[in-house]
């Protein structure tokens, strides 16, 4: 999903401490914040609101209402835009920590929420495997032909701002059950330095097989 909008702490004229993307009652991402919004400056007649814009997204398996909260100077998470009818007393972060919530809305707006259904496959590499030593990645499905699909290969969960660091590949219906990607020829591959590879897929059959080889 991709979310954009703006928020400003009009009580203190300070930027929000953090802008949280929430699905249901769980925080799924901290949204990039600080984008220029001269239109908000004009609307609020407040030059301190120049960097009040947020824009970003995340891939998540969670389902539920998508909301945005801003943590302001008081340390509380304030709903932005159209909040839940009965907001929770606390939001839970992915690490289990909790953020206290107030029903008092923050000054701001959620301009757009775009949701796209994707499939996520996570491949865990053995400790002895260094991704940069391999040139070719073959991905496939044991359930049949991949079909028409687009895949983003990354070393973290897909984010909008991180897509320039992901490797993109497309398979046509005639590709069969396997697709070979020359990852070694992509500069992004050199930055893959952890033990997990994330494949975010749009369309086609679910990828359930990943193989690396040294010869492209």
Keywords:
1 helix, 216 residues, mainly beta, 2 domains, 4-stranded antiparallel beta sheet
Layout of strands and helices, then pairs:
Layout: E1 2-8, E2 18-23, E3 26-30, E4 33-35, H1 38-44, E5 53-57, E6 66-71, E7 77-80, E8 90-92, E9 98-100, E10 107-114, E11 119-124, E12 136-140, E13 149-154, E14 167-171, E15 178-181, E16 196-202, E17 209-213
Antiparallel strand pairs: 1-5, 1-10, 2-3, 2-6, 4-5, 6-7, 8-9, 11-16, 12-15, 12-17, 13-14, 13-16
Instruction: List the strand order in the largest sheet.
Output: 4-5-1-10
Overall outline:
elongated
From the alpha carbons, calculate the radius of gyration and give it in angstroms: 20 Å
Instruction: Give the number of domains.
Output: 2
The H/E string reads EEEEHEEEEEEEEEEEEE
Tally of DSSP helical segments? 1
Q: In terms of per-residue confidence, which ranges show pLDDT below 50 for 5 or more consecutive residues?
A: none
Distance between the termini: 34 Å
What does the average pLDDT come to? 87
Report the portion of residues in β strands: 35-45%
- Specify the helix fraction band: under 10%
Number of strands: 17
Class of secondary structure makeup:
mainly beta
Largest beta-sheet characterization: 4 strands, antiparallel
Describe the structure.
With 216 residues, this protein is mainly beta. It folds into two domains: 2-114, no CATH class; 119-213, no CATH class. The chain has one helix and 17 strands. The protein has one helix at 38-44, and strands spanning 2-8, 18-23, 26-30, 33-35, 53-57, 66-71, 77-80, 90-92, 98-100, 107-114, 119-124, 136-140, 149-154, 167-171, 178-181, 196-202, 209-213. A four-stranded antiparallel beta sheet has the order 4-5-1-10, with no helix packed on it. It has a four-stranded antiparallel beta sheet with strand order 3-2-6-7, with no helix packed on it. Strands 11-16-13-14 form a four-stranded antiparallel beta sheet, with no helix packed on it. The longest helix is centred in the first third of the chain and has 7 residues, at 38-44. It is elongated, with a radius of gyration of 20 Å. The protein starts with a strand and ends with a strand.
């Amino acid at each position: 999903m991709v979310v954009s909008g703006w928020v400003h702490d009009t009580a203190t004229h300070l930027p929000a401490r953090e802008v949280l993307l929430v699905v249901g009652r769980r925080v799924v991402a901290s949204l990039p914040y600080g984008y220029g919004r001269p239109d908000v400056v004009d609307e609020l007649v407040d030059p301190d609101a120049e960097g009040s814009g947020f824009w970003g997204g995340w891939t998540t398996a969670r389902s539920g209402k998508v909301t945005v909260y801003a943590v302001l100077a008081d340390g509380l998470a304030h709903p932005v835009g159209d909040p839940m009818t009965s907001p929770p007393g606390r939001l839970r972060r992915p690490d289990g920590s909790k953020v206290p919530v107030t029903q008092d809305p923050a000054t701001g707006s959620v301009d757009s929420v775009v949701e796209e259904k994707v499939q996520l496959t996570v491949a865990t590499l053995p400790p002895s495997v260094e991704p940069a030593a391999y040139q070719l990645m073959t991905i496939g499905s044991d359930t049949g032909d991949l079909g028409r699909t687009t895949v983003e290969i990354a070393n973290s969960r897909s984010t909008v701002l991180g897509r320039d660091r992901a490797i993109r590949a497309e398979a046509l219906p005639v590709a069969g059950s396997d697709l070979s990607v020359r990852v070694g020829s992509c500069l992004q591959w050199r930055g893959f330095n952890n033990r997990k590879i994330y494949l975010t897929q749009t369309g086609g059959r679910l990828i359930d097989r990943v193989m690396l080889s040294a010869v492209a």
